[in-house]
Amino acid sequence: MAANVESSGQKDQQHPLWSSDRQVVNQLLDAQPTDYNLAELARLRIRYQNFPGARDIQADLDKVLQQWQLSEADLFAKTRQIHQMAQVYRGRNNQREDWS
Hints:
This protein has four helices and no strands. It is mostly helical and 100 residues long. The protein has a domain at 37-100. α1 (18-29) packs parallel to α3 and α2 (35-48) packs across α4. The two termini are 20 Å apart. Residues 1-7 have low confidence and may be disordered.
């Protein structure tokens, strides 16, 4: 992925997890809003929030929100409820808390 130059003169950065996250985002674009998919969307929204790069992923995360007819506030409210009620990542390596 080539770095883009912004009007401020700073170059966009390449996120070290871009490749694996790109695969997840591609799956979300064709998926339904299950508890797991909502949690993944929220996790990636947090990871890429204010990140100076990965514009393609950020745009596609916005697209998924639109497809699922959710605002970011709605998404975060739903995922807080999901995480309070169940282990979303059960059986998927319980050490999954990789928010950065």
